[in-house]
Amino acid sequence: MDQHTPPATQFGALPFRETRGGEVEFLLITSRGSGQWIIPKGKPIPDLTPQETAAREAFEEAGILGEVDPHPIGRFAYVKDQGQPTAQFIPAVEVFALRVTQQLTLWPEMGQRSMVWLTPEQALHAIEIESLRKIVRRFANRFPKAR
């Protein structure tokens, strides 16, 4: 890809689970470059739909499996590897909700990132990308106890 060709849309998963008390929690991971708290995401994967790509990225980056919603819940843009000489603007990450049903003990990128389950309030505090915070806030409001 030359410097005049914009990067393609990426696909991301917003991993969530409901607690026994009916509250929602989100799984966030750190990016490998900047270490900021984000969601699993990546470039399109041939022969996979956007939501399947999002689910695959969640498996590879965080070791989670689940039910992915086929309809996107939002889009955000970000600067990849911010502050690095190779930083690039990613114009869009299409986000799909992923209800986590299984958390694995081994996965492809294990040990390359940190990850944590957070309440909506904690997640909103941890996420630096404002447009991603808006998606998390809007999605959390679907759960009565998150309001």
UniProtKB/TrEMBL annotation:
Q: Which cofactor does it need?
A: Mg(2+)
Does this entry carry the keyword rRNA-binding?
no
Keyword set includes Nucleus: no
Which residue numbers delimit the Nudix hydrolase domain? 6-141
Q: Which UniProt keywords apply?
A: Hydrolase, Magnesium, Metal-binding
Q: Name one GO molecular function term.
A: hydrolase activity
- Name under which the protein is recorded: NUDIX hydrolase
Matching entries from SUPFAM superfamilies are given as:
Nudix (SSF55811)
A single Pfam family it belongs to is NUDIX
Q: Which InterPro entries match?
A: DDP-like_NUDIX, NUDIX_hydrolase-like_dom_sf, NUDIX_hydrolase_dom
